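Action item from last meeting closed. Structure (181 res):
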């Protein structure tokens, strides 16, 4: 069966993106997020120009990708269903702005994984503007780390597929390269 080309057939990460500095800092939920290069590490996020966060990323050329746990699903959804023009999401959700190690845009202290990014390129793509951000710092709550890496057995997050949040089963089901054995 052929589907609309606007339907995503694969899981996308659901993340809350921090943009702006100080009192103007805002949060926006995006599923259009992905790693596009390993060296230098570059991720891409896409935002519609009509969104409040668009002006902030344009102004400061920095953003932070904040990944929630499954217990923070409500906060993540809230940030994607209300506009920062109308309310302060940080205050409404009792989220703490935490200073990053490189960028001026704040991290969400309560979210266990954060990636600080500096915009290195932007591309207009129809309804969205895609920002390529060099990852300049990565943070994780230590309880999710094993051998200086994210522990796949402790991952407690979700993905976004066609308007639905899908829980990701805890634990690795295989390691890259396992088929070589």
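Sequence:
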């Amino acid at each position: 069966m052929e589907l609309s080309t606007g339907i995503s057939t694969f899981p996308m990460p659901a993340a809350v993106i921090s943009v702006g500095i100080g009192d103007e800092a805002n949060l926006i939920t995006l599923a259009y997020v992905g790693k596009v290069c390993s060296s230098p590490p570059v991720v891409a996020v896409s935002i519609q120009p009509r969104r409040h966060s668009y002006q902030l990323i344009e102004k400061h050329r920095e953003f932070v990708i904040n990944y929630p746990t499954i217990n923070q699903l409500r906060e993540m959804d809230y940030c994607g269903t209300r506009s920062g023009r109308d309310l302060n999401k940080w205050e409404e959700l009792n989220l703490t702005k935490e200073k990053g190690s490189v960028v001026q845009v704040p991290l969400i202290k309560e979210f266990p994984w954060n990636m600080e990014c500096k915009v290195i390129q932007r591309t207009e793509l129809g309804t969205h503007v895609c920002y390529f951000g060099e990852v300049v710092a990565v943070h994780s709550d230590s309880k999710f780390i094993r051998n200086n890496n994210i522990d796949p057995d402790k991952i407690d997050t979700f993905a976004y597929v066609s308007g639905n949040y899908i829980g990701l089963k805890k634990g690795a089901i295989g390691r890259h390269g396992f088929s070589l054995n």
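Note appended to the action item: The helical segments are 52-60, 73-79, 89-92.
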